[in-house]
Design a protein that fits this description.
This protein has 241 residues and is α+β, with helices and mostly antiparallel strands. Helix content is 30%, strand content 31%. It contains six helices and twelve strands. The strands form two sheets. The protein has a seven-stranded mixed β-sheet with strand order 1-2-3-7-6-5-4. A five-stranded antiparallel β-sheet has the order 11-10-9-8-12. α2 packs antiparallel against α4 and α2 crosses α5. The longest helix is centred in the first third of the chain and has 23 residues. The termini are far apart. The chain binds biotin (BTN). The site of biotin (BTN) has 21 residues, from α1, β3, β6 and β7.
Length: 241
């Protein structure tokens, strides 16, 4: 990390702030790219990320070759910074669903995307702030919860403050914080990875940043990345079992 000061670029409309941030990274500049709307916003697993006006859509270019270990923790650090910035700005207590979805009452409030090149990392954050949430059944916005507009720049400022604070924390502290604010720990989950599906109870994060799941044979399974389906209703798990 060069330092915790860099330029903020604001755009009315872009394809994706991820691509603009990458251009800056390639030119050797750490920057925060903010857009009012994105025409091709993207999420994890190459999903489309709906980005209308009113949301907080931004990407940060970090000119650093993070060790593999530190890289695993970056999304956890980012999700904690999003969670804390929302709490600080609005008093809303959200939770983190593994690996880094921010949920409020089971609905998605914010998402995080990490992309990397040889010598840089791009972190993308999308928070439903004053926009209509895209799919009412699965997502929610801060305005919808509070019935009033929220200052997006305040959230961004708080995010940057927490992000740099957490970046300097020991990994065991990050693990403890993440577990404390996670809605996944001790829940029944199904995690779909590129090679298999694991069902069980999510127990904790390992020292190297994996989600530890106890499956029904009582075996401990470790997953570093995947799509997590969480069962809030026990019967669903039994049916699928
Ligand atoms: C996810 O939950 O799937 C991650 C969503 C990340 C969305 C943000 S919005 C700003 C940045 N630009 C993008 O195209 N995506 C990220």
């Amino acid at each position: 990390m060069k330092g915790n000061h860099f330029k903020l670029y604001w755009f009315e409309e872009v394809d994706s702030t991820m691509d603009i941030a990458r251009e800056f990274a390639k030119k050797g500049e750490e920057a925060c790219i903010l857009a009012e709307t994105q025409t091709s916003g993207r999420g994890r697993w190459a999903r489309k990320w709906y980005s209308p006006k009113g949301g907080l859509w931004f990407s940060i270019s970090l000119l650093q070759t993070f060790s593999k270990e530190k890289l695993v923790f970056l999304p956890y650090i980012t999700s904690l910074a999003v969670l804390f910035s929302i709490k600080e700005t609005t008093r809303i207590s959200a939770g983190i669903k593994w690996p880094n979805d921010i949920l409020y009452q089971g609905k998605k409030l914010a998402g995080i995307l990490l992309e990397r090149g040889e010598e840089y990392v791009i972190l993308g954050v999308g928070i439903n702030v004053n926009n209509e949430p895209p799919f009412k059944e699965f997502s929610i916005s801060l305005k919808e919860i509070l019935k009033t507009d929220v200052d997006r720049l305040l959230i961004l400022t708080q995010f940057l403050k927490y992000f740099y604070e957490f970046l300097n924390k020991e990994k065991m502290e990050i693990i403890a914080l993440w577990e404390k604010h996670s809605v996944t720990i001790n829940k029944k989950v199904k995690v779909i990875t590129s090679s298999c599906e694991i069902m069980g109870i999510a127990k904790k994060l390992s020292d190297d940043g994996a989600l530890m799941i106890i499956d029904k044979e009582n075996k401990v399974r470790k997953v570093f990345s995947g799509e997590c389906i969480q069962f809030f209703d026990d019967s669903v798990f039994n049916d699928a079992d």
